[in-house]
């Protein structure tokens, strides 16, 4: 995908980063430089004068500048939070389609990643690049280099088990369940027909999971998709919530014979693997 000497862009399309994060982010830049990549950052990584000191248009323009900079070969977003869907109607999807650069982000970036797929069919990656300077830095850096520089797949290979069914195949869409649902009723929600739906979540217990899954049911999603992959549901796992997310899904799909697989390797953990949104996957038991 990339080679040493390439330029990459760093964006923060969701909540701007806080000053206390600067040390960690500077460490990220240093590691990327040591890997052999040149870093170009968005103008608006930090919002030192408060959340709304940067306008929606300024943040959107900053992302578009990374797309139109011909030196940049891939874009990595280092943010998360709540606000990236503000940008959706401010982006130029024709330019994004013409400048088809891999885009990496997770959590709230689910909204932008799925909007990009809906509007352009470009493939993006659910992955937080700051993992390479986490407590799992050695393992994450190795997987990152192996996949991004050496064109292997260690960052993309994940273990899974089937909850229902024995196989599924199709283009994967989705991501963080709460953030995906921000797209409901908008032109930025991708078509679910014949797709595999990937879902994960950081916060919230069984009530939030049931509410989000009910909304997907009421949108008719479970009658159109070809499979579900459940990633990490961090709060539920850490707090030993019952019923399990698998049981809630089976309750909400109301007997639909949808293949369902579970992986504990993709989500918000610092040792998370990556999954490609807009890519065709085939999973078998």
CATH architecture of the largest domain: 3-Layer(aba) Sandwich
What's the CATH H-level superfamily name of the largest domain? Murein tetrapeptidase LD-carboxypeptidase, N-terminal domain
Note the run of SSEs as H and E: EHEHEHEHEHEEHEHEHHEEE
**Domains (count):** 2
Structural class of the secondary elements?
A: alpha/beta
Describe, in plain words, how this protein is organized in 3D:
The protein is an alpha/beta fold and 285 residues long. It has two domains: 7-149, Murein tetrapeptidase LD-carboxypeptidase, N-terminal domain (Rossmann fold, 3-Layer(aba) Sandwich), CATH 3.40.50.10740; 161-284, 3-Layer(bba) Sandwich (Glucose Oxidase, domain 1), CATH 3.50.30.60. The chain is built from nine helices and twelve strands. Strand 1 (7-11), helix 1 (22-35) and strand 2 (38-41) form a beta-alpha-beta unit. It is globular and about 50 Å long.
């Amino acid at each position: 995908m990339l080679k040493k000497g390439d330029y990459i862009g760093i964006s923060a399309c969701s909540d701007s980063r806080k000053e206390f994060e600067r040390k960690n982010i500077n460490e990220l830049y240093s590691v990327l430089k040591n890997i052999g990549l040149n870093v170009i950052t968005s103008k608006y990584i930090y919002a030192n004068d408060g959340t709304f000191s940067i306008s929606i248009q300024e943040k959107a323009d900053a992302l578009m500048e990374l797309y139109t900079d011909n030196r940049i070969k891939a874009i990595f977003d280092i943010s998360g939070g709540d606000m990236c869907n503000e940008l959706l109607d401010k982006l130029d999807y024709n330019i994004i389609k013409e400048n088809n650069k891999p885009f990496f982000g997770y959590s709230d970036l689910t909204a932008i990643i799925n909007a990009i797929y809906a509007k352009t069919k470009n493939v993006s990656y659910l992955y937080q690049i700051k993992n390479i300077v986490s407590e799992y830095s050695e393992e994450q850096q190795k997987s990152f280099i192996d996949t991004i520089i050496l064109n292997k797949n260690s960052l993309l290979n994940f273990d899974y088990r089937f909850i229902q069914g024995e196989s599924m195949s199709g283009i994967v869409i989705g991501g963080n369940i709460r953030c995906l649902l921000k797209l409901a009723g908008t032109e930025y929600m991708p078509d679910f027909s014949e797709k595999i739906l990937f879902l994960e979540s950081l916060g919230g217990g069984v009530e939030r999971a049931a509410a989000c899954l009910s909304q997907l049911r009421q949108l008719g999603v479970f009658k159109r998709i070809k499979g579900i992959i459940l990633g990490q549901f961090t709060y539920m796992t850490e707090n030993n919530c019952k019923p399990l997310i698998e049981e809630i899904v089976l309750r909400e799909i109301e007997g639909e014979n949808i293949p369902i697989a579970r992986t504990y390797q993709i989500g918000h953990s610092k040792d998370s693997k990556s999954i490609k949104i807009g890519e065709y996957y085939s999973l078998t038991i």
